[in-house]
């Protein structure tokens, strides 16, 4: 269990308030730091956990079932550990050994790096940088001309070099603080750049050799799975609250909705079992063979997108059954639905 029942109740009791604040609260961040949940894929020599991949996926799911924004941030924060082997060893120590270490950033190459003596002059704007308001390091992809060839280069930025543009106004995952960041002609030394095709250290760690896109797809799908479970939990609670009134006014409605919920719970369990079967099989295959074929990667991709589609369909069928009270943003049922809809919009989970 990730947190005690008491802590889970405390987190959920303040969930709507955190939406208004737009970020995780200091007490929740303290819990994350204590359990090193942003360091699940950071080596122990850098004060990380180096959690087994499937165990970490379960953690993402469990955290998202507690609170969507919490699950999303733990998945995003942990994902930053994937960059460890591609940084210079001394740089990775500076980035990851802080207790509060959190990397925020973007994989979109929406910046430009102009070669200079000893480094690059960087300008750009990157959207959807979750955790931007308390990140200790930022990474961002830039386009750079190397001779006549354009390449993508990741740059490492310090908070004082970055301006956070508070523009995250999505309908869900409101407490992730996924704002844009802007950089204007900032010099970045060559030592503070890296490419995901050029590892420099920790070459024996399997997680760093696993295809990055597949890693990200599975991580986000696990969050969707956890939010889906949270939605079903809140649906059942909402139904129980309506039971007394509906037994008087419309007893048939209660029994019909209860049957539908039970059907979707069964469907959810099937989705979850299939997800972990395929992902675990993919990971075992990778560890044994040292690589995944394109067909094997495609199977994982298809599974993650299929799961996301299923979770959305469950929400779209059940939410309209509860009337106006279910569309009020200050209810946990509505919050779970909004989080589910928002998480499913990540480009890696889109059906096409």
Report on the structure:
- By secondary structure, the protein is of the alpha+beta class.
- The protein has three domains: 5-84, Butyryl-Coa Dehydrogenase, subunit A, domain 1 (Orthogonal Bundle); 102-194, Butyryl-CoA Dehydrogenase, subunit A, domain 2 (Beta Barrel), CATH 2.40.110; 210-349, Butyryl-CoA Dehydrogenase, subunit A, domain 3 (Up-down Bundle), CATH 1.20.140.10.
- 49% of the residues lie in helices and 17% in strands.
- The protein is built from ten helices and seven strands.
- A seven-stranded mixed beta sheet has the order 5-6-2-1-3-4-7, with no helix packed on it.
- Strand 3 (137-146) and strand 4 (149-157) form a beta hairpin.
- The longest helix is centred in the last third of the chain and has 39 residues, at 251-289.
- It is globular and about 80 Å long.
- Residues 219-350 form the Acyl-CoA dehydrogenase C-terminal domain.
- GO terms for molecular function: acyl-CoA dehydrogenase activity; flavin adenine dinucleotide binding.
- InterPro entries: Acyl-CoA_DH_C, Acyl-CoA_Oxase/DH_mid-dom_sf, AcylCoA_DH/ox_N_sf, AcylCoA_DH/oxidase_NM_dom_sf.
- This is Acyl-CoA dehydrogenase.
- Keywords: Oxidoreductase.
């Amino acid at each position: 269990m990730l947190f005690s029942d008491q802590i889970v109740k405390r987190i959920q009791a303040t969930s709507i308030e955190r939406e208004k604040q737009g970020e995780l609260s200091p007490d929740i961040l303290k819990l994350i730091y204590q359990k090193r949940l942003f360091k699940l894929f950071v080596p122990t020599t850098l004060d990380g956990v180096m959690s087994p991949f499937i165990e970490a996926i379960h953690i993402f799911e469990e955290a998202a079932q507690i609170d969507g924004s919490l699950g999303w941030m733990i998945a995003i924060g942990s994902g930053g550990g994937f960059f460890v082997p591609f940084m210079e060893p001394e740089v990775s120590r500076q980035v990851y050994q802080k207790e509060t270490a959190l990397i925020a950033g973007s994989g979109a190459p929406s910046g430009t790096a102009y070669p200079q003596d000893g480094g690059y002059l960087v300008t750009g704007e990157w959207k959807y940088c979750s955790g931007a308001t308390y990140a200790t390091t930022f990474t961002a992809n830039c386009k750079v001309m190397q001779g006549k060839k354009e390449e993508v280069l990741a740059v490492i930025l310090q908070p004082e070099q970055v301006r956070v543009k508070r523009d995250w106004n999505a309908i869900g995952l409101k407490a992730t603080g996924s704002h844009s960041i802007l950089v204007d002609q900032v010099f970045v030394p060559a030592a503070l750049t890296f490419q995901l095709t050029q590892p420099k250290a920790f070459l024996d760690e399997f997680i760093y050799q696993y295809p990055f896109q597949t890693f990200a797809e599975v991580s986000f799908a696990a969050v969707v799975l956890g939010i889906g479970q949270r939605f079903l939990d809140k649906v059942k609670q909402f139904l129980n609250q309506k039971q007394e009134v509906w037994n008087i006014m419309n007893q048939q409605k209660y029994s019909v909705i209860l049957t539908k919920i039970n059907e979707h719970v069964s469907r959810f369990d099937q989705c979850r079992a299939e997800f972990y079967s395929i992902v675990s099989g993919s990971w075992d295959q990778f560890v044994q063979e040292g690589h995944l074929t394109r067909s094997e990667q495609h199977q994982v991709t298809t599974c993650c997108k299929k799961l996301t589609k299923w979770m959305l369909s469950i929400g779209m069928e059940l939410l309209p059954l509860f009337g106006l009270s279910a569309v009020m943003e200050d209810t946990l049922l509505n919050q779970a639905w909004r989080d589910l809809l928002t998480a499913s919009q990540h480009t890696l989970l889109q059906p096409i």
